[in-house]
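Q: What does the assembled structure look like for these inputs?
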Amino acid sequence: MAAGGGIDPIHQFHINPIVELKPFGLNLSFTNTSLWMVIVVAVVSAIMVYGSSQRAVVPGRLQSLAEMVYEFVASTLTGVMNKEGMKFFPFVFSLFMFVLASNLLGLLPGSFTVTSQIIVTAALAVLVMSVVLIYGIAKHGSHFFGLFVPSGVPGWLLPFVVLIEIVSFVSRPVSLSLRLFGNMLAGHIALKVFGGFVVVLLGSGAVLNYAIAPLPLLLAVALTALEVLVAVLQAYVFAILTCVYLNDALHPGH
Amino acid sequence: MPVRSSGFVRQGWPLAVASFATLAAGAARAAEQTHGESGEGASFPPFDPSHFASNLFWLAITFAVLYWLMSRIALPRIGEILEERAGTIGRDLDQAAEMQAKAEEMAQAYEKALAEARKNAQGIAQTARETGAKASDAQRHATEAELAAKLAQAEATIAKTKTEAMSNVRGLGSDIAVAIVTKLTGQAPSAAEATEAVDQALARG
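A:
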C-alpha cells in the first residue's frame, strides 16, 4: 500500500510471482495466489484429515468441526438430490471447503483472497458445468437435452422456450462465477476503502479529522462482520447451486 | 408427452452444440482482445490475462490434491466414524433394553419367590397350628383318661369299704341281736338264727 494519501484499494488483488516458472513460454509462476491456494488446501486438509485421524467415538474439538462440516454438506446435498446424489459428495464437499476456506482466509489482514480472481471462480464454475454436461450425457445420452425442453408447452411456443432454456443454462457458469467473484472483490474493496479513510483522516493533521476518524473505523469493523457472513454465505450458495445443477444431470426431465 | 419431447431433443442437439461453439469462439476472441490490451497501462489485476495460465495451473493442482485427500482419506474416514458411532449408540441402546428386560424378569422372579414363600409360611403356620391342636387334644384326652381311671379306682375303694362296713354291721347286728334276745328271754338263740333274723330285717330295709 502506497504511503500518504495514495491508498490503492486494488493493490490487495495484485499477483506477484514468488517462484518464476515459464516452461514452453507459458507463465506458470508460483505466485501469491498459488501460495494461498496451497494454504487453503493445507488448512482444509488439517481440519478434515488430521481432525479425523483419531477416529474417536467421542470426538474432540477438531473432529467435531470436521464432522459438523461433513454432516452440513451431506444434508445440503441430500436435501437437493436425495441419497443418489451422494456420489457427487466428495466433489461438492471439496468445492464448498475450497471456496469457504478461500473466502474466510482472505479476510485475514495481509492475506490474499483466491476467490477474488475471476479466473479461479470461472474455472470452478466451468468445472461444475463440465461435470454436469459429461455426467448428464454419459448417463442419459441425448435424453439429457430434454433439460431444455419443458413439457406442457404449446408447439408454436416451444422454439422460444428452448432458446430461453439454453440461454439460462449457458448463463449458469457465468452467474455462478461472477456472483462469488463480485462478492469477494466488492467486499474487500469496501473494507480497504473504509480502512483507507481512517489512515487518510489520521494523516491529515487536522484536529477535527482525528475526531471523526473512529467513524470509518467502526464501519470497517461492522463491514468485517458482514464480510464473514458473506464469505460463508457465498460458499454455501456456490455449493447449493452446484447441487441444483448436478441434480439436473441426474434428472434432466422437467 | 414423450413423443414430441424426443423430437425436440433431436432438434435441440445441433442447437445446443452451435450455441456452445459460438460462445466458446466469442470467449476466445474476447480473451485475445484483452490480452492485446493488457500490455498498455496498469489493468485491473483480476482481469489481467497474463496470470490466467498460472492461476489455472495451480488451481488445477491444488484442487486435485484437495479432491484426492477429501474423497480418498477424509470423507470415507469421517463417514466410517459417524456410522460406527450410530452403530455404537444403537448397540448400547439395545444392550440397555436387554438389561432392563432382564431386570424386570428378575423383579418378577423375586415377586414370585416372595409370593411362594408367603404361601409356604402360611402352610407351615397352618400345620404348626394343627399339630399344636392335635398335641394338646391328645394331652387333654390322656389327662381325662387318667382322671377317669383314678375316679374309678376311688369309687371301687369306696364300694369295697362300704361292703366291708356293711358286713361288719351284719356281724355286729347278729351279736347285738343275740345279746338282746338272751337278756329278754334268758335263752340264747343260736348264731345262725340270729344272723337269719338280721338278714331278714336288713332285707326289709
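Chain A touches chain B through 65 residues (CB under 8 Å).
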